Amino acid sequence: MNLLVKAAHDGRDIVSVTPQSAGWDYVGFAAHRLADGQALSLQTGGREYCIVVLSGVVSVMAGEDCWRNIGGRASVFDDSAPYAVYVPGGRSVSILASGAAEVALCSAPAGDASLPARLIEPASMKRSVRGSGSNTRYVCDILPHTEAAAHLLVVEVRTPSGHSSSYPPHKHDVDNLPLESSLEETYYHRIDPPQGFAFQRVYTDARDIDQSMAVENHDVVMVPRGYHPVVMPHGYQGYYLNVMAGRTREWHFKNDPAHEWMIER
Q1: pLDDT in tens, 52-104
Q2: Phi, psi for residue 64 in degrees, rounded to 5
Q3: What are the tens digits of pLDDT across the range 9-23?
Q4: d(CA 215, CA 230)
Q5: 152 near 108, Cβ under 8 Å?
Q6: Are 97 and 35 within 8 A, CB to CB?
Q7: Which of 38, 149, 169, 182 is the most exposed place for a label (fewest CB within 10 A)?
Q8: What is the C-alpha to C-alpha distance for residues 169 and 248, in angstroms, rounded to an integer?
Q9: pTM of this prediction?
């Protein structure tokens, strides 16, 4: 199976991954570009959603709840956290753009959770620096396990030019808590300047999965299992939005033993 999902360069719908298209059970992802005054509507049904305002300003209506004019980032590469909205299952949702905007729809099964829709403000998100040297990257936890949801985990990462990320290679495909949890994952990539590319490899210990991909702006990489490092070439900085979900809503990972020496050092 090809794990790289190419983006559409024009139109409202940029890229989409569903459990059916991915051949897995939990994670759904879609990204959309909206023009001024353009609306996007959906029914959450049996799925929970985290709507991330990647750039621009939008209003989000979810059932009887409404949050007007949220967002404001000019780009995902701004040094600031995004606005997001959590929406449980069984809601009608409408997103209306005020000016050009880009939004991400992250979803997973709603399960039996009975949670209210809520605005997730930038000030509530934990931002941190991970790694060191040419392995430094900048992380923002949008919907971590410490905040209420049924299955969804959402995080964004900025990777400077010439740096590696999701590195040393790690995986989370075995339920072996507290050492490792089984989580499906998507990477939604953005590149600055946009004509650039990143490299991502997805591989397992047995190499029954081993794909190395040149990833362009707006592309998605699916990670059903295995290690999944990212490298940015010189001159281009990278951004990715991660959506993870699995049976247990915890993120515990295992590093590739062949490369763990760099942490021990």
Answers
A1: 999 999 999 999 999 999 999 999 999 999 999 999 999 999 999 999 999 99
A2: -90, 0
A3: 999 999 999 999 999
A4: 10
A5: yes
A6: yes
A7: 38
A8: 22
A9: 0.97
Is the CB of residue 82 less than 8 Å from the CB of residue 51? no
Biggest CA–CA distance in the chain, Å, is 54
Distance CA 259, CA 80 (A): 32
CA separation (Å) from 5 to 40, 97, 117, 175, 178?
22, 26, 30, 27, 32
How buried is 207 (Cβ within 10 angstroms: 0-12 exposed, 13-18 middle, 19+ buried)?
Answer: exposed
Measured in whole angstroms, the distance separating CA 218 from the mean position of its chain's CA atoms is: 12
